[in-house]
Amino acid sequence: MQIYLDYSATTPTRPEAIAAIQRVLAEEWGNPSSLHAWGQRSAIALERSRVQVARLINAPPESIVFTSGGTESDNLAIMGVAQQYDTPQNLIISSVEHSAIVEPVRLLEQQGWQVTRLPVNRQGRVNPLDLQTALRSNTVLVSIIYGQSEVGTLQPISTLAEITHRHGALFHTDAVQAIGRLPIDVQTLPVDLLSLSSHKLYGPQGVGALYVRPGVALLPLLTGGGQESRLRSGTQAVATIAGFGIAAEMAATEMVVETPRLLYLRDRLFDQLVNVPGLVPTGDRLHRLPHHVSFCLDYADSEILTGKALVRQMNSAGIGISAGAACRSGKVAPSPILQEMGYSDRVAKSGIRLTLGHHTTKADIDWTAMVLKQVLSRLTPSTLLARV
After folding, report:
1. Which helix (H) or strand (E) element contains residue 364?
2. What confidence tens digit (pLDDT) does each residue in 292-317 have?
3. Is residue 379 part of a domain?
4. pTM of the model
């Protein structure tokens, strides 16, 4: 029995998206910047996809800039704002951002920018009052992740964005994990910049988008031919963008049914595992991505059982999950996300994540819970259990 529970890492490309990719490669393969018929067929396919992606978040099509994925979208949002300033300013992020935000911000910090990292509570959630206090006269951008990929916590994005706007700064959110799983309407959600990724919503890998609210100025990371409203030069990958468009269109249609189904399965898995000795839920149970389940392991010897070790054991049983801690030079390093949430270094090595998707069934959930209990009973004798 094979059960894939790592949908936050990537989703399988849906057949309809594959069909769209194949059609464009076979019939609409021209350069969309060319004026002849071949180019115009490709340009029509490109703009059709732009409309499909825009509709997913109720945005005007011209506000969608296609990129190579969520990482580039995040980098374009951060650096596209920062590059407009001749002298370093202040920007604010949360302490639980994805590395696609952390790394460009670290680069800016090395260049003299003042970076404020907002703390989070034990559930990984930002307190809006902390943002209010952190804002400075030279704060130009706030970037807060919508849904945290490792622990599933949703942030109060609307409130945070409103606070930011009252101050006169721009607000960006990395919504890669939330798009296609939660309804997002940028006509009512007061964000200026929002990152999306195709392969998190059953589209192909290697393509994403950045929503740029009309009137918001950015400088490009890539210059050249001036494609994507001069914000992302380079001939567009029309075939994969077409797959992204189809995936976005179908996500918008299916969400009304799929999201409640995922919520039910998510809570069912939590409920079956919440009382297992040594298994501690992480993240916010109330403000949470609908497909996301995560735990850390409450045990005494981190060398015997880490999150990575548990991933390998589950994989041997035919179940794909993921771990939050990184492996560097053969040693497991604590997850910085769990550390920021107040967990000890020992416990922060033991985070695991199970994320659900289209193909997840009730039977999958029940089987996974049973197998995980069995694995833990073998690997965590009572003498190893400790208090977090």
Report:
1. helix 362-379
2. 999 998 865 555 678 898 999 999 99
3. no
4. 0.95
